[in-house]
Amino acid sequence: MGPNGAGKTTLIGIICGIVNPTEGSVKVGGYDIVRDYRKSRSLIGLVPQELTTDAFESPWATCSFSRGLFGKGADPAHLEKVLKALSLWDKKDAKIMTLSGGMKRRVLIAKALSHEPRILFLDEPTAGVDVELRQAMWDVVRKLRESGVTIILTTHYIEEAQEMADRVGVINKGELIVVEEKTELMRKMGKKQLHLQLQKKLDAIPPALRPYNLTLGADGTELIYTYDTQAERTGITALLAAINEAGVRFKDLNTVQTSLEDIFVDLVGRGK
Hints:
Layout: H1 8-15, E1 27-28, E2 31-32, H2 37-42, E3 44-47, H3 59-69, H4 76-85, H5 101-113, E4 119-123, H6 131-146, E5 150-154, H7 158-164, E6 167-172, E7 175-181, H8 182-189, E8 191-198, E9 215-217, E10 222-228, H9 236-245, E11 250-257, H10 260-270
Parallel strand pairs: 3-4, 4-5
Antiparallel strand pairs: 1-2, 6-7, 8-10, 8-11, 9-10
Helix pairs in contact: 3-5
């Protein structure tokens, strides 16, 4: 993940051999992308942001051709499996120019999978795709992951990253500022908030409660306390006692966990 212009697509381009790096080195499956470019690229499938296909070809023909470019022999059964998984089988002989934008994006995914790569780059694959198709795509991604394919995804839909990802990387201004297991990242950086719904509206936080850095929300009918889940003490017990001593009564409470989006915004904001 990263803001627009952070370098996500450039990094993918370097790994896939589309962009020449000015320094450094990259290995894919142990193969250097410059010295062993044929071997390294044979392991990679790429679904780019742009819809780049031959408008007059069919999905079947473009996938067959792409498979051949990587030196793989014809395998109609594999192509049929891929096209059916992406709901393209009934359109396999149609000209790509006649397909909808969502179907064209599915053709790109099928093309990237045609040579059975072990690493699949998806560069914002669901941009402009309807909700139903997006869900179908993620079903395909899950099955690929279960089969052992490594999926590297860039997305602006943070809820998708939160649902799908095992690890999260955040890039900003060309620098990877964090790469972490998703659950560990949320454990380290996640904070919780305690929300207390008050019986009576408050115009201001009582002086006795100010040391707790509370926030007054919901037009004065809610107190919000932010605490660190990793701290030795959360301070909740002392806070509830102080609230009682201050004569403030609440009718309900609940906790809210920091989301991956909150963490992303915080990380990127630090780099500005």
